[in-house]
Amino acid sequence: MSRTRLAGALLFLFIPLVLVLYLRMPLGLPGSVFLGMFLMIGHRFVARPFMERHIERRCFWCGRDLAGPGVPAPFRSSGETVEARACSGTHADRLIAFARTVAAGRLVVFLLIVLPVLIYLGNALLTIVGHGFLPLDTARTAFKIPIAVAVVTLSFAWPLGARLTREPAIDVPAHNLSLLGVSWTLWVFRIVGLFWLGQAAWSALRPY
User: Fold this and answer.
1) How many domains does the chain have?
2) DSSP letter (8 states) at residue 59
3) Mean pLDDT over residues 47-54, rounded?
C-alpha cells in the first residue's frame, strides 16, 4: 500500500471513531458528543486539503495511485467542480454513474442521512441540559435505521446512474469518499449498514 493510500485510510478512521463517540458514548454523554462534533467539523479541514492535494494522482473510484494522467471524471460538489480522475475508462464511468445516482437521490440522501444526524445531535445536546425529546436508545435507533437504509440501497443501486443523463453531482462531503476511494467506501458503508439493519431486526424479533 502506498503512503497516500495509507494516509487516506488513517484519515477515514476518524469517521467510525465519531460514530463510536456518538453511539457508544465512551466518555459519557457530554464528553462524547462534544468531542464527536469537534472531530466531525474539524475533519473537513484535514480531509478536504488531502483530497485536493492528491486529486490528480489518485483514482477517485478505487483509490489507486495513477501510473499516468488517468481518465478525467469530473463532477459537481457543493457548487464546485471536482476534477476527479480515474485509473481506467471503466472506473471513470462507474464514478460518473455513482455521481448521477447521488444527484438523482439528493432529497432522499438529505432525509435519510443528513436529517437523522441533525435530529440525533439536537436531541443529544438537549438531553445534556435536561430537555431531550427522545430517550437515547430510541434516538440511536432513529439515527441508525434510515442511514443504514440509505447507504445499503446506494451501495447496490448506484449502477442505475449509468442510464441517467443528468449532471453528475455529489452533494455530500466528497472528501470523505476520496479517502479510500468511492468503491471501497461503498463496501464499508454496505457492511456497516447491513449490520445495523441486522441489529434492528434482532432487537425487534428478540421479545418473541
Assistant:
1) 1
2) B
3) 96
